[in-house]
Amino acid sequence: MADLNQGDPIPELRVTPDKYLPHRYAGASGDFNPIHIDNDFAQAVGLPRNILHGLYSMAQVARAQTEAAGGDPRALRRLSVQFRGMGVPEEEIVVTGSVTERDGDRVLVATEAFQGDNGIVRNAEAELKIG
Amino acid sequence: MPVKTEAVGKEYPPTTYEVGLEKIREYANAVGQTEAVHHDREAARAAGFRDVVAPPMFAVVYSSPAMGPAILDPDVDINFAAMVHGGQEFVWGEPVCAGDEITTQAKVSEIYEKDGKGFYVFESVSTNQDGDEVVRATWTNIVRGV
Fold it and tell me: Which chain B residues contact residue A29 at CB under 8 A?
């Protein structure tokens, strides 16, 4: 488990969703909105291409927190995010974060996810219970 | 066109979702959760879970069926062509494991206008078969140019 004292960064999480990831995530989550799985449809409504599900990107932010806490899914107590720029397949997602507060076994982490310069999950805050 | 706020406070019929082991594995594979507790029954039991445990964000899977009717409700009147998912919060309680039966109730918690955008905020509460809360979620959808 990472050191999680005030000011400590959490270990960076890097993942590159492949071309077909949105299709697998659609099946897993039940969200088949065509903007995620149909490139022609996405472009017809003015998007650059089919885009990642925001909740997939949030799941990567969540995963970075549970990994920082040693892999126990019970460690993540709360996660609040804002979705901003649109995420796309085939570009690396980098999740970073740092501990803003530590009170005993309760840890608050400010965290975000970027693809290059494009922030796709912003102003996120996670509350962890470690132990 | 101002947002309509009559639907604030409206509640929707609860939905029930039965959590399957293979669905947890499928979801864990899609989001890259490789920990054994999300895939292997023995590993999950050794870690103190009743059965294979869902990753926290699996909350999306069991709570979405309750959210559909709320977001699509004509009384809420969202312009879908201009809607984006603006924000999301989950507060987790008891872990969710394969075999659990999760009941979710959704409601409209806020509708307001700010900076020319409409904010449609929904809350859902999910409980397991023992009546324990497993997740409380806040879903914020934003509509540009209301």
Answer: 27, 30, 60-61, 64
Q: Does B33 touch chain A (CB under 8 A)?
A: yes
The 10s digit of each residue's pLDDT in B5-55 is 999 999 999 999 999 999 999 999 999 999 999 999 999 999 999 999 999
Amino acid at A114: F
- Contact yes or no for A66 and B56 at CB 8 A: yes
- A73 and B90 within 8 Å at the Cβ level: the answer is no
